[in-house]
Structure formats: C-alpha cells, structure tokens
Amino acid sequence: VEYINTLFPTEQALEEAQIAIQQLFGKIKDIKDKAEKSEQMVKEITRDIKQLDHAKRHLTTSITTLNHLHMLAGGVDSLEAMTRKRQYGEVANLLQGVVNVLEHFHKYMGIPQIRQLSERVKAAQSELGTQILADFEEAFPSQGSKRPGGPSNVLRDACLVANVLDPRIKQEIIKKFIRQHLSEYLVLFQENQDVAWLDKIDRRYAWIKRQLLDYEEKYGRMFPDEWCMTERIAVEFCHITKVELAKVMRTRAKEIEVKLLLFAIQRTTNFEGLLSKRFTGCTLTDIPGKKRPESPLDPTNPFLDESGEDVGAEKDEEFAKVVCACPRKPKAPDNPFHGIISKCFEPHLYVYIESQDRNLGELIDRFVADFRAQGPPKAGTEEGGAVLPSCADLFVYYKKCMVQCSQLSTGEPMIALTTIFQKFLREYAWKILSGNLPKSNSNSGGLTITSLLKEKEVCEAAKFTVDELCLICSILSTAEYCLATTQQLEEKLKEKVDKVLVERINLTGEMDTFSTVISNSIQLLVQDLDAACDPALNAMSKMPWQNVEHVGDQSPYVTSIIMHIKQNVPIIRDNLASTRKYFTQFCIKFTNSFVPKFINHLFRCKPISMVGAEQLLLDTHSLKTVLLDLPSIGSQVLRKAPASYTKIVVKGMTRAEMILKVVMAPHEPPVVFVDNYIKLLADGNPETFQKVLDMKGLKRSEQSSMLELFRQRLPTPPSGADGGTSLSFSAPTPEQESSRIRKLEKLIKKRL
Q1: pTM of this structure
Q2: Residue 304 neighbours by CB distance under 10 Å
Q3: Cross-strand bridge partners of residue 726
Q4: Percent of the residues in the chain that have a pLDDT greater than 90, as a whole number
Q5: pLDDT tens sequence across 550-595
Q6: For residues 748 and 752, what is the distance between their CA atoms, to the nearest angstrom?
Q7: DSSP string, 1-33
Q8: How far, in Å, CA of 667 to CA of 607, rounded?
Q9: Do residues 633 and 570 make contact, with C-beta atoms less than 8 angstroms apart?
Q10: Is 386 helix (H, G, I), strand (E, B) or coil?
Q11: Phi-psi region for residue 375, left (φ > 0), alpha (ψ -120 to 50) or beta?
Q12: Which residues contact 689 (CB under 8 A, 6 or more apart)?
C-alpha cells in the first residue's frame, strides 16, 4: 500500500499543486501589467522627444531659408547695382552665388515675393548678356574703326561673367571675335587675288601663324583658358580656307597641274601636322555645324622634303614656343586635324590619277624599248631564267603610288588608282611577257629519217635555241612573281581603302592573266620538246619491223629522243630552279603528251615480226627508264621523282609494253589470244583490238573472225556502265592534275 501511494499522489498533493499554479499565474500577470505601464511611459517620453526634434529641424530650416532669402534679396540688389556700374569682376562671383542660392527656392516659386526675386535675377542676366555683347562690339567693331591696341580688364572680367550666363552668350562672343579676327584674311585672299592661287598657298599658312602669335601676345590673357581661343581661331581658319580653296580650284580647274596640286597638298598636310602638334582638337566638335574629321593621319608623309623639315621651320619653332591656352594632352597617334583642309583637294585628284596613268604608260613603253635594246636574257648568265628587272621596278612604282594616294585620300581616288593598276598589269602581261614569248615555228630542227635509219647519232638543234628556252623560263618566273605580288597588292589596297569600298578592290582578272602566261610558257616548253621528238617517232613508224632479224641495242630513234630530252630538260630545270613546282608541271604535261603520241606511232608500226616486237619492247623499256628519271636527268643531285609523276609514266608506258606483249603472243588458238588481250590491256574498244591485229599482220578474213570472237568474249559490263568502256591511257583531268601538283609541292617542300 505504501509503494502504491508513492506511485499515485493523493488528493492533498493535487490540491497543493493547483494552489502553486494559481500563485504562479498571478505573478506572471503582475509582471505583464508592469511591462505595459513601462511601455506606455516610454512612448510618452519619445513622443515628446520627436516633437522637439521636428521643432528643431523646422526652426533650422526656417533660419537657413531666411538667411538664403536675405542673401538672395541683398545679392539681387547688389547684382543690379554692379551691373549698372559694369563691375564685372565682382558680378562674376556674385552672380554664381545668387544663381546657386536661387536653386534652393525652386519649390517656393508659388510665393509672389520669391517669384519676383527670380524674375529680377533673370532680368539681370539678360541685361548682363546684352551689355557684355555691346561692350565687345564696341571694343571689336565688325567694320569701320581699327581694333584697339590691347584688351581691357573689363572685357576679361566680362568673359568670366559670360561663363555663368547662357552658353549662347559665350558662343556669340567667340563667334564675333573670331570673325573680326579673320576678316583681314578674307580680304587679302579673295578669289580674284593673285595670292589666292595654289602656288602661293604658303602665304595663307604664314599669315595664320603670324595672327596666332599676335593673338597670344595681345589677347591671350583676356579669354579664360578653357575657351581654347587659339585653337578655335585656327580651326575656323581651316574651315574658311577649305571653302575658299575649293571655290578657287573649281573656278580655275583647267589651270591645275599635277606638280602644283601635289605642292599644295604637301604644304597643307604639313600645316595640318603642325596643328596636331600644337593643339588637342578639343574644339572640333564644339563648333555648330562642324564635325571632327574621321580620317587618321598616316604616320609617313610622302610630301615632306628629303630633310624631313617643312618650309618655314623657323616660324614653326617660334610658334611652338607659345604656350597654348588649351589644356595639353599626351600626343595621340592619330591627327585630329588630318583632312580638315586637304579634303578640298579630293575632287581634283583626278589630275593626279591621270598623271599616274601617263607615267605608267611611259614606264611600260620604256620597259618594251629596254627589252628590245638589251635583248632577251642569255643562257649561262645571271639573268638567264631569272625574274625580269622591269617587273620589280613596276611593283616598286605601284607601292609608291599606293602609299602616296592613300595619304591624299582613301575614297574614290583609290578605286580610280586601282583601275589604273589593273590596266597596266594587263599591259605588262601582254607587251612584256606574252608579247616576247618565242613563236613555236621559229626554227626547224630534229633528225631526218634517213639519218635515223642509218643509225647515225646526228645532233641537231632543237626547235627553240638555248637562249629562247632561257627566255621562256625567265618569262614564266616573272609571271609567277607578278602573280604572287599582285595578290599582295590586292591585300594592301584593301587595307588602305575605306571599308565601304573594299568590295570594289578585285585583281582576280589580272592574276588569271599571269596564270595564263605561266600556262602558255609551260605549253611552249612542252610543245618544243614534243616537236623535237616527232621526227624520231615518225622514223620509228616507218621502219620495216617485219624484217628485223635480231634484237640489238636501243634503236636510233630512241637515242635521238633521249638526246633531245638530255639537251632540253637540264636547261629548263636549271632556269626554273626558283619555281620547282612549274618544272614538275612541265614534266607531267610532257609525259601526258608524249606517251599517247608514242602509243599512236606504235600502232603505225605494221606489220611487226616477233623479233621486231622484242626490239620495240626493248626500246619502250629504255624510254620508260628515261621518262622515270626525267625530273633529275643530267643533274648531279639525284632526286626521286614525285610519286604522282611516276604513276603517270608507269601507267602509260606499261600500256605500251602490254600492247607489244600481245603482239608477240601467238594468235592461235584465237580464244586464248583474245582472252589474253582482254586480260593484259583491259580495253573493250574494238578499234584498239583492230589496230593490234594490224600490227600482227593478220589478213582481213582472219581479223573478222577475231573481232567477232572479241565481241563475244568481252565481259558483261555492270548495270549503268558503258559497254564500250576503254581503259586506254588518257591525260588526267584538270582536277586530278591540280591535286597532283599540290602533292608535288608538299613533297618538294619536305625534301627541301
């Protein structure tokens, strides 16, 4: 029972607990009531403090406003009095203070007294503006009396007042002063005056230099520094000069000569450069209606004297000593004054362009005359196969013209100059390069059939002489140089011209012209060597091959062909040493021309005995060996021929060997012969099979049955294929040849 009583409280214990809880709630309520009383007390205290704060703030504002009002009222009275007495020095400081104080009363403009004070301030400002303009008009009259000896302190203080007034007052003062200061210039250099012409343009710039020096001495301290009056006078002079020069050049356009024009541009650009050294260009955007020039100054000036000094350097040095009123900044790489005057010459640059047209025409004529007088490059000399000197002279002159014109203008004149460049690039290609290529029928040479049949190795002259071969190689090298340099010229022109005109610069046509000269030169070299081999091939086709009794050394016609190759190819290779890729093209084109011709002459050798076919096979192998060594024949440095070239030779000459092997094979039984032909030649053309039968000397009746059997034994071509497909040797397509040339270039670069 005691244990259970300890676990479960009795009724007395519960009553005691309830009493304790009630006492606790009572204490909590007392604490809450006291807290609410304390909070109410704090609110009452803070409310009083806030009221005191508001009262203090309003009182302070009232006192400040009353002080401002007192200052404003007194200031307005003083301002009106000082204005009447022209006490501009005191007015300048007072007016700025009054304006600042008046800003505090913007929200009180509804009060009549405040509004009245504001109107009085505006009236005083208006009166000051009118009064200051009148004072300047009196001191610097537009017409009539001469200007006074020096500025007055009143005007200097008036400028300080103008800084506080409406900006239009300041602009009006500047405008009138500059107009009055340059009025003498407009009279001295009127359009009808002799000194207004371009040949005396130096006098214009000398006059303004004297005027600026005179201004700094007399009026430099009258205007505030931030007005930059010296620069403003110079800029206005530039604008007036630009208009006046344009007017006089338009009137006397027929009298403008290129030397006179370049002289005027030189002096003008020098003066613009001088301005960039003296001033920052900070006023170029301040003058209404005037825009800052956008064209930067090129770092090089083609019109400077060789000494690099401008005319009148002594005056410039004296002018440089004058401290400019404008704040100076570090020298910028661009000239903000470039074109501020010289732009007026741009419409007349056609005189310069026409002059360059005439000069280039005379230059081309001189190149032609020199070439005729000196003759073509001689073999064995330094000039042999080298780039013609006239080519370098032409592009040096082009560069000079391009730089010069770009400094005159980067707009339409550059496009006109580009057109002139295109014209004379084509003329150079036609008159100097293509016009001096030897004619293909210049000489006749080769071996006679009789001498070949008698097996006499007679060394005859090639169709072109050695000097002519050297000339062709020299023209080819020159055309390659022109092609590469023309591409660089196009890139430089695009850099110099305005961006909006870049698309109009295109020298692709001229580059194609030089590519055509290169192609024609290579073709002439190929035709020359090819034609030198023709007599030997004709002799081969006319030899009685059915009467050959034994196989000996290579035939005389092979010796003749090899002799011509050894004569021509080393000369061509040595003269094209600087353009190896074109020598490789020559080798490829010659092989593509010679091998099909050799096979055609091979078909003419009929009939052929077994021994004759063996002799022809030996000759074919000898020619194949020579052709494989063609790129390095006669050279002390042995180089492996490019793989693409070797592939062409092997493919073509292997076909010739297969033809001879078929001729050597017995035609009995016919089925075996036909199958062997199809297997070796892989040629489904009946005409080719007919030629092989003619070489074997078969009768027409035998050939008919053979042809019928050939048509029956031909394999069925796949669907969509041409039944008459022929795998006979053919020249590669231009795309294949271009791909091979690129591979050759890579191989040559790797070996070098």
Answers
A1: 0.67
A2: 14
A3: 683
A4: 20
A5: 888 888 999 999 999 998 899 998 888 888 889 999 999 999 999 9
A6: 6
A7: -HHHHHHS--HHHHHHHHHHHHHHHHHHHHHHH
A8: 14
A9: yes
A10: coil
A11: left
A12: 677, 683, 706, 707, 710
